[in-house]
Amino acid sequence: MSQTLAVVGIGMEGRESLTRRALAIVLKAEVLAGGARLLDLFPEVQAERVRIGSHVDEVVGSLASRLGEKRIVMLATGDPNFYGITRVLLRHVPRESLTIVPNVSAMQWAFAKVAEPWEDATFLSVHGRSMERLPELVRGRPKLCLFTDETNSPSAVARALLEAHIDGYRAILCEDLGGPAERITRTTLAALVELKADPVNTLILLAIQDAPEVGATWAPGLPEEAFDHRTPHAGLITKREIRVLSLAALKLTPRSIVWDIGAGSGAVAIEAAKIARDGRVFAVEKNAEDVAIIRGNVTRFKVGNVHILHAKAPAGLETLPDPDAIFIGGSSGAMRAILVEASRRLRPGGRIVVNAITMETLHEAVSVFRDLQFDHEAILVNVARSKPLQGKLSFEALNPVYIVTAWRAGDRELLTHLQN
Fold this sequence. Notes:
Blueprint: E1 5-10, H1 20-27, E2 31-34, H2 36-39, E3 48-51, H3 56-64, E4 72-77, H4 86-89, E5 98-101, H5 106-113, E6 122-125, H6 134-138, E7 143-147, H7 154-163, E8 169-175, E9 183-188, H8 189-192, E10 201-207, H9 212-215, H10 240-250, E11 257-261, H11 267-275, E12 280-285, H12 288-301, E13 306-310, E14 325-328, H13 335-345, E15 351-356, H14 359-371, E16 374-381, E17 384-389, E18 392-397, E19 401-408, H15 411-419
Parallel strand pairs: 1-4, 1-5, 2-3, 2-4, 6-7, 11-12, 11-14, 12-13, 14-15
Antiparallel strand pairs: 7-10, 8-9, 8-10, 15-19, 16-19, 17-18
Helix pairs in contact: 13-14
C-alpha cells in the first residue's frame, strides 16, 4: 500500500481542470479527503470520505497516522503550495511522503481574467491574519494581489490603506471566478470601501503611474532633522553617517530579526525596519521620554514592524525572539551584561554592532568580545560636515565614533561557504 499522501489541486473549472494523471489518482483513492464542495465533484469514487472543515490540523494528523494503510488522496483548491494546505501537511507528514499535483491557483486565474502579467506582482494574504502591517507591505509595490476573508474583506483592505494615506492604486476585484456569480469590477480604493464582495474573491491592486507613495524611494541615512529627538545637548541620535555604516555592518536581510538596544530616538530601528521590511525590529529604551519619541517616529514613518520595549537592558531581552542582528547605541553601564546575553541569543551568522564614543566604552566592548571568543573589528569614524561661513565653504567636525562589529568565531567561514 502507498506510503504517500497525494494532494490534488482542483482548478476553477472543477474536475474538468484535472490532467489524466491527476484524475487517475483521485479515482483510485481509498480515502478521499477535502472540503464538501470538492468531494461532491467525484460522486462515483467509492472511497471513505473525510470532510475537512475548521479542524484542519486534527484531520490532517489523523490522516497522517494512517499512511501505508490505504491510498489517501486529499483534494485542494488551485495550487496547494500557494497559501494552501501544504504548510499544514508538513507539520504532520514528511516531505518525502507527499505527492503534490498542483492546478491553476486563484491568483493565476485572476490575472488571466484581466489579461495582466503577474511575474512582477507581490502576493499577500490577509485571510485569517492581522492587517496591522498591511499598509507598510503595500506601500511602494507597483502590483499586488491579495487573498482576503469575510473580516479582512476587500472593503476593509481599502479602508486600511486609505487611513494610511495610500490611495495611489487602482483596484480590480475578481469575485467567484469560474462560478455562476463571476464578476470583475475595476474601481478605485475609495469606491471599493463601499463594495460588499463575494466571500470567494481575489483582489488585484495596480499602482497609478506617478503616485507619490509608489514612486517614493528611500535610502539609508535620513538626516537627523527627519526624526523627532531630544536636543543634541540633552539627548542623542545616531548621526546619519554613523547610522549608514552601522547598518551596513549589521548585514541585514529583508527577514532579519533586529534588536536596537539604547534606541534613543529610534532612528536606527526605523531605518533597520525599512531594510528588514518582512522581519521585525525591537527598539529597547529605558528612558520614558525617549520611548514616547520612538513611538512618534514609528507612527511618522509608518513602520509597523518596529516593536518598542521600555526596559533597561539586559532586563526584558528574554522576552524577545532570538536576533539576527543587534545594534547597541547605549548600554547605561551594563555593556558586559548586555553583550553576554546578546552573544548567547545571537543566531548563527548574526552580527553585533556597538557604537562607542569614549575609549573606555571601546575597550570594554572589545574586552568582552575577546572573553566571549567572538571575532571582531573596530573602525574609528571622523566626520566633518560642510557649513557656510561668510560666503565661504567651511567644515564642522562631529564627535568621532568607534564602530565595533563582532560575530561568532567561524561564522565568516560559514557565510563564505554558503555564498559560494
